[in-house]
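Typical record is below.
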Amino acid sequence: MNVLKPWLPLITIVGLGSVIACYFMSDHYLRFTEEVQLASGELIAVDRKFKTEALGEIGGPGGWDAKFNSMVIIRPLRDGNPPIWQSEIGLIPILFDQDTGTKEWFVVTTFYMCDAWRKIGKPKLPYAEFRLRNGQWQQVDLSPQHIGRPANILTRISNKAELAYHTINTKIERMSAQGIAPRFNKITEEWVGCRN
């Protein structure tokens, strides 16, 4: 007589439940390419990579946070392109461009979770700016001229399924969907958010 036979349904349910829980609580990897319109009018393409952490379902459908993400220009390939920009603290690019005055490349980032805000020094506004100086991305104070500028980087990203290639039009469609906070669509000058 098989001793496990009466326990088989329970073992099956526990096993399946464990697999499902591991899937929802494990890391996910995303990669896609998107077109980016620079202030100069030039259209470039960047490669984006993410390692995401699923958040629980408590109080709603859950969500995710970026444990790692990166962005690099893949088209056009030329001298003078900046090196890869990356974050391991949950920052999400919102604006990527080249300063017309200084010719410095810059990335303005925001975040989904307040832990990233604390790690960048608890700024008044929900953004961190990075400028390429001496071949390195360096965090600097948010430049006032960015206030009001629209995002040119996709911030409404699905961690379940993402298009392999986002055109300017697919990004506009995604970013104009209801429910997205204004701070993800443009650099805002007001924000009520994280607490110490």
